Every structure is written in C-alpha cells, then in structure tokens.
C-alpha cells in the first residue's frame, strides 16, 4: 500500500498542466479523505471501507492510464489518489490494532520500519519502469538469478 500511495504522489509530475497545479489539486484530497473516513468508518467498518477505497483507487488508476493526457486524466488520477488516501488512513489505524497489547509498541515500531524500507525502495521500483516493465514485474515474483539470463 505504501508503494501505491508513493506512486500516486510521485506521479503528479507526469500529469498536465504542470507539476505544481497537479500536486496542489491532488493535495486537496487529504481533507475529504479524512472527512469521508470519519463519516462512514463506524457504519461500514474498516474492511469494507478499505476494500471500497482500494477498489476506487484501482478503477480510477486504470481509467487514468487509458485516458489521453489532459484534464480528464488529471481528474481520474486525483480521484484515484483520494481512494488511496482513505486506504492509507485506514492502514494507519490497523497498525495500532493488529499487534497484541503486550507487544503493541514493538509491533507498531516494526510496522513503521517496514514502511520506511518501502519508502526507501520506492524510487528504485519507479526507476525499474523506465528500464523495463518486464523487469519490474519479474523483480516482485522471481529470483534475479533466474531472470538474469533473459536480459
């Protein structure tokens, strides 16, 4: 989830009209995400809100990919980021509730360390796309020793 969130944040430079306008518009999704979460989380629960927000992000991400460059693509990407903001806020709540009470501090610390590692690896994964989309997909699922002879 960290990589998807970071991908939506870092992808703003690829959207029209310019990086500052796109980033400013996408940043406006933070407040509505928090308000929607506050209004509907108690009614629907974390599981369904998490599912709906990730589904919203996925659908609008694919629509943004299929849409030609322009204001429509920016709108689709911003709606996708809204869904990812909601999912990230739900994920922050899960981090404090999953570990047992006895080891909650260590568990939350471990979850944060894993998140920091994901943030560190994120730019390298984004860089893999510029090299090869095949390399990106195989880096997740296969051993490099197996895929090295293919290149």
TrEMBL record:
Family matches, as SUPFAM superfamilies: MFS general substrate transporter
Gene Ontology MF terms: transmembrane transporter activity
Transmembrane segments: 20-41, 48-67, 73-96, 108-129
Domain Major facilitator superfamily (MFS) profile: 1-151
A cellular-component GO term for this protein: membrane
First-listed, main subcellular location of the protein, grouped into a coarse class: membrane
Organism domain of life: Eukaryota
Pfam families for this protein: MFS_1
Membrane topology type: Multi-pass membrane protein
Record localization: Membrane
Keyword terms: Membrane, Transmembrane, Transmembrane helix
PANTHER family per the UniProt record, alphabetical: SOLUTE CARRIER FAMILY 22 MEMBER (PTHR24064)
Name recorded for this polypeptide: Solute carrier family 22 member 2-like
């Amino acid at each position: 989830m960290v990589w998807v969130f970071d991908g939506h944040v870092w992808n703003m430079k690829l959207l029209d009209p310019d990086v500052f306008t796109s980033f400013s518009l996408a940043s406006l999704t933070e407040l509505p995400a928090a308000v929607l979460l506050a209004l509907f989380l108690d009614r629907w629960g974390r599981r369904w809100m998490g599912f709906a927000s990730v589904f919203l992000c996925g659908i609008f991400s694919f629509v943004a990919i299929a849409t030609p460059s322009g204001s429509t693509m920016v709108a689709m990407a911003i709606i996708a980021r809204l869904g990812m903001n909601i999912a990230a806020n739900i994920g922050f709540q899960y981090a404090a509730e999953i570990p047992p009470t006895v080891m909650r501090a260590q568990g939350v610390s471990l979850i944060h360390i894993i998140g920091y590692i994901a943030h560190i690896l994120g730019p390298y994964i984004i860089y893999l796309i510029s090299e090869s989309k095949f390399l990106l997909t195989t880096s997740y699922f296969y051993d490099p020793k197996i895929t090295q002879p293919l290149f």
